[in-house]
Write a structure and sequence with these properties.
Elements (H helix, E strand, L loop, with lengths): L1 E3 L3 E2 L10 H10 L3 H17 L6 H13 L13 H25 L8 E6 L2 E4 L4 H9 L4 E3 L3 E3 L3 E7 L8 H12 L5 E7 L17 E4 L23 E5 L3 E3 L4 H4 L5 E5 L14 E9 L4 H9 L20 H5 L9 E2 L5 E3 H8 L7 E3 L13 H6 L2
Parallel strand pairs: 2-4, 3-6, 7-8, 7-10, 8-9, 12-14, 15-16
Antiparallel strand pairs: 1-5, 3-4, 10-13, 11-16, 12-13
Helix pairs in contact: 1-2, 1-5, 2-4, 3-4, 4-5
Length: 386
């Protein structure tokens, strides 16, 4: 998936689209080359002499010219020879305009290494040189930049859990990882929290090498409880998206990842069968947690001395019969959370099997039975669960 250029900004939060550089490049490609060149040269000269934000690259070229002419460079930029500064700016602009003509003629933007960026509130903030490349690419008529050309800091960790049993094969983990990669252009880490059984020889060898395996010492589905810690083990991001392994992803996850609430869940009941008072109940099959907003869930689990009963053979008098959901949906706990729009993550058992895929569906949860591997006769499952 590609990155819209209107979401790429400088470290000073300046848009590339509509900037002086972008405007000059448009003029140049319209044939007003002298006007565009002078516009860029003047911008680089002004930047060089700006005491608050002096241009480093132009400064290096100025130093080179002083050296070429065996002249002593002044210690203060304000004392530099204006003609030398203009020569430096002209050299730099000529290089950029040559690149612009190449991009316009070939339709390709080639770089020795990816651009580096961090993601802040949905914008890509450039941390490396590349401003001029993107401005040229935009002036040549492109609205997006290939994500392979931008190496961004990870914004979120997508995680799941696996107990190592044959209830879910390891391939469920690989499929979920690939599915996430196909359906978001937001840079992410992917981690699987595993219990003791999963660490036995032969269980993890076939996982994709990009998947982080995090041993947490909890069996069954309880290994997933770690996602609700203030900073889950093995993660480096402040944002967490927890997904059950039996999720089939159909559409973009971007709106889920960027949902404007620090603690949000799949809606537990479709409206047609929702018990009174349960309209806001969450289902942990899809959970967004920002900045440790779910840590009260983990604290309650610890307070109850970390129950670890087998979900496939549950004891009659068990604590937390629905694990996370027993905590977040208990009014007495007072844990603030939101639910995603009902159609975004739909239950196969409660909705899709009866009424089909809702419009705008991003993912289908196969909680309970059947599982995706048993529904490959459905075209949408076969197409997306791979």
């Amino acid at each position: 998936m590609d990155i819209p250029i209107d979401r790429i900004v400088t470290e000073e939060n300046e848009q590339i689209l509509g900037s002086v550089t972008h405007a000059a490049y448009l003029l140049f490609l319209e044939g007003r080359k002298d006007e565009a060149r002078e516009m860029l040269i003047r911008a680089h000269i002004d930047s060089f002499f700006d005491p608050d934000r002096p241009n480093i690259t132009t400064g290096k070229i100025v130093s080179e010219i002083y050296g070429e002419n065996e002249l002593k460079e002044p210690s203060e930029r304000s004392a530099c020879d204006p003609e030398i500064v203009r020569t430096a700016a002209t050299r730099r602009v000529s290089k950029y305009l040559f690149a612009l003509e190449s991009i316009s003629a070939t339709g390709r933007m080639t770089r020795d290494e990816p651009l580096r960026a961090s993601i802040v509130e949905g914008r890509y903030v450039l941390k490396s040189c590349g401003y001029n490349d993107i401005a040229a690419w935009a002036a040549a008529g492109h609205e997006t930049v290939q994500d392979v050309l931008i190496e961004a800091d990870k914004e979120i960790t997508v995680c799941c859990c696996w107990d190592g049993s044959d209830y879910y094969s390891y391939e469920y983990i690989n499929i979920l990882f690939r599915s996430v990669g196909r359906h978001t252009n937001i840079p992410f880490d992917f981690a699987v929290f595993v219990g003791p059984e999963a660490l036995k020889p032969g269980h993890l060898h076939a996982l994709d090498s990009a998947i982080k395996v995090v041993s947490v010492g909890l069996p069954y589905w309880w290994s997933g409880m770690c996602a609700w810690q203030k900073q889950p083990p093995g993660t480096e991001t402040e944002n967490i998206l927890y997904l059950d392994l039996d999720m089939v992803i159909l559409g973009s996850l971007n709106e889920i990842i960027r949902y404007p609430h620090p603690h949000a869940y799949m809606k537990d009941y479709p409206a047609y069968c929702c018990p009174e008072g349960k309209e806001g109940d969450g289902n942990a099959s899809c959970t967004l947690i920002r900045r440790g907003a779910g840590q009260k869930v983990w604290a309650e689990y610890v307070r109850l001395e970390k129950p670890q009963w087998n979900p496939l053979d549950p004891p009659a008098n068990r604590q937390l019969p629905l694990a996370v959901q027993s905590i977040i949906n208990d009014p007495a706990m007072g844990i603030s959370h939101a639910v995603f729009p009902e159609e975004w993550i739909s239950s196969y058992r409660l909705w899709v099997s009866k009424y089909g895929l809702p419009e705008g569906c991003r993912a289908v949860s196969f909680h309970g039975l059947p599982k995706p591997a048993q529904c490959l006769d459905l075209p949408w499952v076969k197409e997306n669960w791979r």
